[in-house]
Structure formats: structure tokens, C-alpha cells
Amino acid sequence: MEQIVAPQALSHAVDIDQAARILQRAERILVIGCSGGGKSTLSQKIAARFDLAYVSIDRDVLWLPGWVQRDSEEQRDIIVAKVQGERWIMDGTNPSTFDVRLPRTDFVIWVRMSRLVCIWGAVSRWIKWMGRTRPEMAPGCIEKVDWEFLRFIWTFEEKFTPRVLAGLAQHGPDVPVLQLKSRGEMRQLLDLLGRPA
Fold first, then answer.
1. Measured between alpha carbons, how far is 45 from 80 in angstroms, rounded to an integer?
2. Does residue 4 fall inside a structural domain?
């Protein structure tokens, strides 16, 4: 049985109805969660709905062509520059940059699907984009799935949740957080927000 920390562990957890109301006026939104959970898709839909700049940590910060990872100092410099923007939605979890991102964030969406949903999401995405680079990735990063990536997804909740909770508490204690734990909840949120004009 998968252990998930209860939403009460977050000091500013909100429900979907509250989140929809807050998102109507949010200028800067952070979307976090495990790979394969649907962060990028959700982020792009919200970006289109509210005309926000979409920032993908994978595409814009982390990766160079051919799956070469940028130097961590350069990554941080890029994030510092990106969060200075007035209106954005940023998709990416890395808690080591919460100190830069959370103070500029109005709202956090934590896409917290089960690991089986995330693995299915990653595998189905790989099948869809096989041999190509999806739009949320850096050029030249051909879609791939390997055992290391699947193990990362499988252990994400156990390894990253304590770091995410600690980072939220330390760097964004007053930032409201919505946890989405199913595709149905994600659809419900998007329905409440309405479709892009």
C-alpha cells in the first residue's frame, strides 16, 4: 500500500473550489509532482486559459540537446531570471530551487498521482512521442524511458515528499497548495477554470 502524507501536513492546503477561485487572479503558479503525472499538460492548459508564460524546467532550465544536463549554477541563474517575470506558470519539482521560486509564487499545484498512474503516464507518453522530442523538452532530447527513470518514478513519493513538504514549509509557508490525486480531480479543476478563450 502506497503511503501518502495527508493534506493536513500542508499549512495552506486548499480544495478544488478554493483553488479555482485563487487561480482566477494568480499571476505566478508553480506546478510540481512526479514525472508522468500530467504536470506539463495541466500547466499548458492553465497557461492558455489565463495567457500566462509557460516555463518548463525540463525544456528551459535543466536539459541541453541530447540529454546533457546544464551546470547547476547555470540552472539556478536561469530560474532566478525566469521568476522575475510578472505572469508565469512554471512546471517542475526540484525542491533545491524552492528558495528562489516559492517567494515569487502565488499558488502551488501539487500533481500527486499514484506511482502506477505516473508510470502509465510516462510509458504512454514515450509511445506517443517515440523517436521525437515532445514540446515540453529541450530540442534534441528524444523521448525515452529506461529502468532508472521508472525506478525514479516508483520511489518518488518516498524520496521526494519529505523534501517537498520541508521546502514548502520553509520557503512558502503562506502559499496556498492544491493537491490533485486523480485525473478526475484534474478535469474537475479545469472545468471550474473554464476553457481558453
1. 24
2. no
37 vs 142: CA distance, rounded Å: 19
Q: What is the number of other CB atoms lying within 10 angstroms of the CB of residue 114?
A: 15
CA distance to 20, 30, 35, per residue, from 129 (Å): 31, 25, 15
Read off the pLDDT of residues 22-63 as tens digits, 9 standing for 90 and up. 999 999 999 999 999 999 999 999 999 999 999 999 999 999
In the structure grid, which three cell numbers stand for residue 191, read together?
Answer: 472545468
- Determine the Cα–Cα distance for residues 14 and 194; give it in Å rounded to an integer: 19
- Count: domains in the chain: 1
Domain-embedded: residue 179: yes
Closest to 141 in 3D by CA, of 72, 58, 71, 70: 58
pLDDT greater than 50 at residue 7: no
Residue 2 domain-assigned (yes or no): no
5 part of a folded domain: no
CA pair distance 154, 151, nearest whole angstrom: 5
Helix (H, G, I), strand (E, B) or coil at 55: strand
Is 97:79 a contact under the CB 8 Å cutoff? yes
Tally of residues, the chain = 197
Q: Domain span at residue 67?
A: 13-191
- For the segment 168-187, what is each residue's pLDDT rounded down to a tens digit? 999 999 999 999 999 999 99
CB 196 within 8 A of CB 52: no
Q: What is the CATH classification number for the domain harbouring 40?
A: 3.40.50.300
